[in-house]
Prior knowledge:
Blueprint: H1 2-18, E1 26-32, E2 37-45, E3 48-50, E4 53-60, E5 64-73, E6 81-91, H2 94-130, H3 139-186, E7 189-198, E8 206-214, E9 217-228, E10 233-244, E11 250-259, E12 274-278, H4 288-309, E13 322-331, E14 337-354, E15 362-385, E16 388-408, E17 412-423, E18 432-445, E19 451-458, E20 460-462, E21 468-474, E22 479-480, E23 484-491, E24 496-508, E25 513-514
Parallel strand pairs: 1-11, 9-15, 12-20, 14-19
Antiparallel strand pairs: 1-2, 2-8, 3-4, 4-7, 5-8, 6-7, 9-10, 10-14, 11-13, 12-25, 14-15, 15-16, 17-18, 18-24, 19-23, 21-24, 22-23
Amino acid sequence: MKVSHYxxxxxxxxxxxxxxxxxxxxxxEVILFPHSAKISETTKIHPQCDKGKCKATIMLPPQxxxxxxxxxxxxxxxxxxxxxxxxxxxxxxxxxxxxxxxxLTAAExxxxxxxxxxxxxxxxxxxxxxQTKTKTKTIADSYKLADAIGKNIxxxxxxxxxxxxxxxxxxKNIKKLQxxxxxxxxxxxxxxxxxxxxxxxxxxxxSLSYTYLLAGCGWLPLYRLEALPANxxxxxxxxxxxxxxxxxxxxxxQVSLATLQPVIHVNPPEMPEWIIKPRRLxxxxxSKAENATPLAQTEAAAEEESIALxxxxxxxxxxxxxxxxxxxxxxxxxxxxxxxIKNETWPADFVFLARPAxxxxxxxxxxxxxxKPADIPTGKAMYVIDGAVLDKRDFSFSGSDGMLFFGxxxxxxxxxxxxxxxxxxxxxxxxxQTRSWQWLIEAKNSGNTDVKLRIEExxxxxxxxxxxxxxxxxxxxxxxxxAKFVWLLDVPAGQKKTIxxxxxxxxxxxxxxxxxxx
Length: 518
């Protein structure tokens, strides 16, 4: 028997030596993208040589992209890779099959034990039921026997009910394990067998490194932004949900997260420009021939005007990404894990932003200025102010400066009231027309703390040289550009402040003017 055993062992070893060795690689580094991963593995191969040709084989998981494979030898290696052959092969998850068979055997043994227990309990019940026919000498003995029979039958019955319930669960588990085993044994996936042709004349061990892209992996950023106006700061935390379905656990792997260039989004509604321009006139009763040239000219003019008012969108491609190194991590296959990336306090200048021409609400705005630029990709963020959760919405940040908005406050209102909106009569002698707007802005602070308030109002813009505009304000704006007036006010608790605005328009009498949305 011992000789036969040694012969079988030698035969197996000989068969292994006759075929190219399929190496077992170790995952060393992983760069996770949002929906894929770049895997770096290392292995040691033993080329199999025949008639001067040496080959070695490595395997890639089913989710990998073989076209992304890059194989490199050690820098000092005298060998050279001459050819790479990619072939799809059908593989089974042997580890899962082995584990399912182990669980199934344990469940079947548990079922046998429960059935044996049920047989014993049934025998006990029958024994005590038979004792009811036993004759006793005295009434006291009869009571004692009846009490013993009742207690033991009750206990055995409860134990039997518990065992039957347990047996039912085990039976269901066995059925599920058997179904899973049948599915795993009958299911084959397409993996990738990579055969390397090497320029070596020996079968010594060679160190090999290779990288490839793997699907079924990724990560999702999760943020928490808490506004702390009293501390003039924003508490920022960044976590990442990571997952991988390579079929094997990654142990002590250097993990990095790749971020894409984010885009900053502004939350409050955009304030439209206040445009004052001549209104175009169209005469209806004209023939097609008469309409042809003027219509073309009108469309061309409208197109030129559209181009002048709003620049065409420009595509800015992003070709680079940043990486965040998380160090050595263990990532289990098939389940999500949450990893901490950053936990910081950002300095912030808080101000309440109001655009009363649109609505009376005041937005809590935090102006962020970091010591060094940050590159934070788009993800879902929980917005919190002083411990109160506001909302969960998209967030991203790029650079060192930015603005964050934390909703509105009911304690501050900024209203706009029209005092006058008057048009002057067109006169032939003066050959001009006029119009004036007067409105009052009232900012009220109903809270118990002083606030900084930024009020923005649109600047009327003339699109014709014959339209003259003049402005009067009390107080004068703190800032002004081509599109908006800006007032920066300190409003004490429980008080209010007002701003008076007056706009005068003068234009030719024959001009039909579109006075804009205000």
